[in-house]
Amino acid sequence: MAKAQLKELFFRDSSLRLPLVAGHGLKVTERTMRILITVLTGLFVAMLAAALLSQLWASRNQSLADESRLTLVDAERAAQNIMLAAAEPNVTGHLSLDQALLDKSVPIDAAAHDRFFILLDATGTIVAAVPHHANWNGKSVATVLGNDFVTHAMVNGSEMAPLVLASGEDAFMASRDLGKLPGSLLALQKKDDVLSIWRSGVAKLTGLFVVTLMVLLLLAGAFHWQAGKAFDADEMLSHATGRLDKALEGGECGMWDWNLMGDKIFWSMSMYEILGMKPKGDYLSFSEFSHRLHHDDARLDYLIDDLLRGKRKDFDQEFRMRHENGSFIWLRARAALAKGRASNDPHLVGIVFDISKQKQLDTLNQEAEMRLKDAVENISEAFVLWDTESRLVLCNTKYQQFHSLAQDVCEPGTPYSVVAAAAKEPVVQQFVSAERDSSSGARSMEVQFADGRWLQINERRTKDGGFVSVGTDITALKTQETYLLESERNLMVTVKDLQKERQFAEEQSQSLAELADKYASEKARAEAANRSKSEFLANMSHELRTPLNAIIGFSEIMSQQIFGPLGSSKYDEYANDIRKSGQFLLDVINDILDMSKIEAGKTDLELAPVQVGELIDEVLRLIGPRAAEGKIIIEKDLRKVPHFMADKRALKQVLINIMANAVKFTPEGGVVRLVVTHDKSIIRLQIIDTGIGIPPHDIEKIGRPFEQVENQFTKSKGGSGLGLAISKSLVALHGGKLIIASRQGKGTTVTVDLPIVADTASQAA
Fold first, then answer.
1. Is 430 helix (H, G, I), strand (E, B) or coil?
2. What is this structure's pTM?
3. Mean pLDDT of 53-73
4. Is residue 711 within 8 Å of 581, Cβ to Cβ?
5. Over the stretch 463-497, which tens digit does the pLDDT of each residue have?
6. What does the buried/exposed string (b/e) look like for 441-466 if buried means 16 or more CB atoms within 10 Å of the residue's CB?
7. 255 and 298 co-located in one domain
């Protein structure tokens, strides 16, 4: 078992440690981690749902706009075909308005998505319909399209007009006149048919969201379950570690794991206590170990070398180490070689016993033997000495009492046979076979008596051929040995159990890691889909601007009649409508492109010195005509403001958007004030109008993309809903903030606060 394994086995904590700096850590409990992951999962689901709703609403509006545009184009094409048929040379008089003419004039693919084209005569009677609808022919258009037809019908309008059919269904309608022909052409499409394709997409996106939500719930549930199992395992390991420490302390022993190829030795806490040291972590450097080793015990290096070379199979050695108080204590190490788990480096793993007391007893025995004749009565062992003729030389009281010998029998010179006959041998319960040295004739045995005492009897020959026998009471040592053996067996069982629990915990952790990887993959896919949406909007906006510029340019040429008169004043009106519609659509696309660039993080500011007065004059030159057209008074209150660094084009766009909104939503005779102030740190620009105001509950949403106070069908003013969102983002890029305050019916105040970044070049000049 490697050092890292022993460290984890005996000193593992039931909490997680996240390193911050050297020597310090942040302790995060398992309960905190579970709460954090639950909160993050809920936030992710909420954000995903909000993004889904926003996308669905945007796609719905886009679907309505696309279908309306296609219907208008098809209606215009059908009307042109009818007028061209009337202008053919072979047509005399008035062309007959009938079903055949309508069938021939309506484009082949125009009836897709349930579009209806209705041909009316001069009296408002339906004479033909595509697709064919027999119930409509000959009826008044009001009986089919409902009473709203008269108020909603706008001939040659640029947008589809909403109305309610006589059947009660919502629909959109466009009307086109037929020039000199006595009649008109209507294009009709039901609202449910327009939204059918959008609903199909909604179903798919909703299904994807539900599946994602289920996966997240399963992941969160699995995490909580696994975290609970891991917490229980940690609790069991903590209790087992405590019991193991108690066992090592009680047995006066310790554990070590010595990486023979490294510089560190793993020490258990009991080893520090044996040496009287304060714990310094789980590892002791080899240099400190060798420094405490007695100089006479340096042969440990040779023993370890023999182990590595295979000359020895095990390591069982006694040596001395210096105690913290300066004295040396005796230790006995039993160890074996093992390979590290992380590498093949050899490790010396084993148990160390404190045998200082045993060594002290051995020293006393040696001293007693040297002073046998002078102090034999002072020793604690049963001692007897026989001469070469097996006659008693000396025995102590311990020996006499042990064999229940009379005093007269214990006199020196008594033959061994007489002493043996007079002795009363105790009842022997267990006898450990003697070890005999054939060269010296010495032997040693251990005997357990009926009363539980253990006696170690050592017999040996003296140099003169005599015989000495010492009986030592080793009951305490036997008890300790039995306890240590039992502790070792219990330790091995505990280690096996802990290894099983650790393996099970690792398997559970691996499963949890796999679930976390799947969660990260799904999150990456969602982020990639969001980026694809932004890139798609940017690409589509770019592709649409080119044809729109052509449409606007050609319509301006037609309006100015550069190549000659158009022949009819209506054409002038149509060309002007085309130019205005194209310019409006181009502004919307430009707003979408700007918003997409901002969301994609591709908008870079080009900072340059800005003079507020010049900037406001440029803005008012663009907004002034609009205000004059609406009979709105523009006032300005400009304080002396220093030059500052900003992106002039972006700041100009912000002011134009805000001023345009103020003029757009201020009735005739109203006032729009532009106030500029500053202090040491910020420049404040305020646009204050006396317009219609904003309801309090709508103020927050109008700063978001595509959000407007009025809905798509009842609003009285045009706009994409991106102006304030773009302005707010551009102000934020400058490090400033945009604040809207309004009272419904009283007016609106938009405040732009910009930090002053000084123009160092100007100041130096």
1. strand
2. 0.33
3. 79
4. no
5. 777 878 887 878 888 888 888 888 888 888 888 88
6. ebbbbbbbbeeeebbbbbbebeeeeb
7. yes
